[in-house]
Specification:
By secondary structure, the chain is α/β, with parallel strands linked by helices. It folds into two domains: 160 residues, no CATH class; 246 residues, Rossmann fold (3-Layer(aba) Sandwich). It is 50% helix and 10% strand. Strands 7-6-5-8-9-10-11 form a seven-stranded parallel β-sheet, sandwiched between helices. Strand 3, helix 5 and strand 4 form a beta-alpha-beta unit. Helix 2 runs antiparallel to helix 3, helix 10 packs parallel to helix 14 and helix 12 packs across helix 14.
């Protein structure tokens, strides 16, 4: 971790390292360019070294699996108790915790195996980056929702490979169950007191830069729920809006734009109608290309009006928002997020030309994943795959035209060359309004969360009379 910290400092980042007064390797008196904050802990270097030595040796003793589990359990409880004392000393150091609150740090860089860093990040509502090799009990896989079937993935205490016999798979499953008991006991004994030291994190301040049209309708439902949970929400929208209304659940701020509400409404209706056209592909392609060009110019003009509205931008800068909630199909929100160094959460179904996929660094093979204009399924013949690949090439051309105005505006405002993909690559979380079950098979990244169905209207409950009729029909069919 130290080489990474030193490299970050060399690149201009302001780095503060918290170091316990007793440490085997983190010596606060060594020369370094980053800031070091030391907090006292109630044990010596010799005691720490002995505990670590016992813990390491427990994993190299030739003995039965059961003895390995018991020995490792005892040594882990002992070393966890040491690190619990370490973390408790940090969390109860009022002077240092006050310094962390006032420091307004952008991110916490920590090894999650000791849990103290994640607890501080949760308490201060700061994004965290984990630096680790692996995590006991497969909790890293579980936390990131990665598949980790215990009958196939070798467990911690075994020397099996991924090629196991049936008996080895059974044994692997049993060890997995032991792991759950092992670490559950440890966490209840040691982690629960950690949580008691921290008060609940306060509600956050949310800046919302929505997309016009139907995109807003499902986003509004999320904002209502967030408001009920105590979050302070500010929605920034153009004054010529179609659906973005005022509400008691959030504060709305508007800015003037150089087009009328009627112009936006007409363009949205014509573009939507084009999606259901039965015209030949090339005809549809050129017409949609024209729609893209017009959409890009219109939304770029709206975004420019916001970015150069000095009063509103000063308000955003002075408000110290915790996160920006935006639809990335219009990247204006992300430009503001980068300008003010605010984490961003994307709320979308998809971005044209699979820019969302590329920005999140997901694999996107055009010979396997159907493109927007192809109307293919994920089962294609060879000729269909060739055509699908050619459509992918055409997408790059069409989206370069549609998003060129945004890229030019972003480069001018941020004072550095930037592409649409680079803009969106800084998104923290992608909330995708699709259901993985109903979509074509596709690779996704851990920060992509499927929320399909959130835009569906809430239906009225059935009347009592209708319920009785349904129950009667069910009984008749059953018997």
């Amino acid at each position: 971790m130290r080489p990474v910290v030193e490299k970050l400092q060399q690149k201009g980042h302001e780095v503060v390292v918290l170091v316990p007064s007793t440490s085997l390797y983190m010596k606060s008196k060594e020369p370094q360019n980053y800031t070091v904050k030391v907090y006292p802990i109630p044990y010596t270097d010799e005691y720490l070294g002995e505990v670590l030595k016992t813990y390491v040796n427990a994993h190299f003793i030739e003995q039965s699996v059961l003895n390995v589990v018991l020995t490792s359990y005892q040594s882990t409880i002992e070393i966890s108790s040491v690190f619990f004392t370490n973390c408790k000393s940090l969390l109860r150091n009022e002077e240092l915790m006050q310094y962390l609150k006032e420091g307004k740090f952008d991110v916490i860089f920590t090894d999650p195996i000791l849990m103290c860093g994640p607890l501080v990040a949760e308490y201060l509502s700061i994004p965290s980056i984990y630096f680790l090799r692996g995590f006991p009990c497969g909790m890293d896989s579980a936390a990131t929702q990665c598949p980790s079937p215990p009958s196939y993935v070798p467990r911690l205490f075994l020397d099996n490979s991924d090629s196991m016999t049936f008996s080895q798979r059974v044994k692997n499953m049993l060890v997995h169950l032991l792991e759950l008991f092992y670490f559950h006991t440890m966490l209840v004994a040691l982690l629960l007191p950690f949580l008691c030291l921290l008060s609940p994190a306060g509600a956050g301040k949310l800046l919302v830069i929505p997309m016009e049209g139907s995109h807003w309708l499902s986003m509004r439902q999320v904002l209502v729920e967030l408001s009920k949970r105590g979050h302070e929400i500010v929605v920034v929208a153009p004054d010529s809006t179609l659906l973005i209304d005022s509400s008691d659940f959030y504060k709305k701020k508007t800015y003037p734009v150089p087009f009328k509400k009627e112009d936006m409404e007409e363009h949205i209706h014509s573009t939507a109608a084009r999606c259901f056209s039965q015209e030949p592909f090339l005809v549809r392609f050129w017409k949609v290309l024209g729609d893209y060009r017009k959409s890009g110019a219109m939304f770029q003009a709206s975004c420019k009006s916001l970015l150069y509205n000095q009063e509103l931008m000063k308000y955003i800068g002075d408000s110290h928002f915790d996160v920006i909630f935006t639809d990335p199909i219009s990247p204006c929100g992300q430009i503001i997020a980068l300008h003010f160094s605010i984490p961003s959460v994307f709320f979308l179904r998809m971005v044209p030309c699979a820019i969302d996929v590329h920005a999140a660094q997901s694999p996107d093979p055009p010979s396997y994943i159907p493109r927007v204009f192809s109307v293919y399924t994920d089962h294609m013949t060879f000729s269909e795959r060739v055509k699908n690949f050619l459509i992918a090439l055409s997408e790059s051309f069409s989206c370069s035209i549609a998003y060129a105005p945004f890229e030019e505006l972003a480069s001018e405002f941020l004072q550095k060359p930037v592409t649409m993909t680079e803009l969106l690559s800084h998104g923290s979380i992608w909330l995708k309004r699709i259901d993985f079950v109903f979509e074509y098979p596709m690779p996704v990244m851990p920060n992509m969360v499927f929320i399909g169905g959130i835009h569906c209207g809430q239906k009225k409950p059935l009347s009592q009379g209708v319920k009785i009729i349904v129950q009667q029909q069910y009984l008749l069919r059953k018997y």
